[in-house]
What we know:
Layout: E1 26-34, E2 38-43, E3 49-55, E4 62-65, E5 72-78, E6 85-95, H1 99-108, E7 113-119, E8 124-128, E9 135-144, E10 149-157, E11 165-168, H2 178-184, H3 190-213
Parallel strand pairs: 3-11
Antiparallel strand pairs: 1-4, 1-7, 2-3, 5-6, 6-10, 7-8, 8-11, 9-10
Amino acid sequence: MADTNPGYSFVSVPKASNNAGRATGKKAYxxxxxxxxxxxxxxxxxxxxVTALALNGTVKPIGIYVTASTIKGADSVDxxxxxxxxxxxxxxxxxGNSVEIQEFKEAxxxxxxxxxxxxxxxxxxxxxxxxxxxxxxxKADQEDSKDKKNNSFEFKTAYKTAxxxxxxxxxxPVTDNDTVNTALGLAVAPVAKAANADSNSQSNNASSNxxxxxxxxxxxxxxxxxxx
Length: 228
């Protein structure tokens, strides 16, 4: 019988390690991207690993702080014969009842999205939802009691899709917040560094020319201060 997925070879999956089933910590920020902001979302032939992710214009993802120990992600398979697929489910708690989290709830309760979740021991992030089967907010319960002040969220896919995806951290666009970017290891685009280097090089050349044209002048004025 031929492979039903031409990108996949029917191969064994051996035991990864003695502790492969042991739970690992999650990073305490979840990245959210609205489907309407996606420009490019490409997977490889096996339909699991994301190979390209880009947003429209100057739009950036956002990061939501969560209590890391409350993150629970899952996919499950269901459906009739010849129609089976996977549904994604992501739940977590956000501590506090700030105006900002309430505004996030109001603005995104009906906004299809994808979510990226980082594992402390894995260079890849898990990708929940796809453009064709996006996540939707199915729970956003606030508690303000003697026990805690908290918001409990759950996002689910309404349509069946492939299993939870994977994406390399280097492919994730930086968010709108430096604290989030640092916590998740999201790097500033290399092109920005190249532009700064080119600017500094031009300034150094100009300074060198000025020094050469002066007779017996103090060349110390050619030193550049780092740009801020």
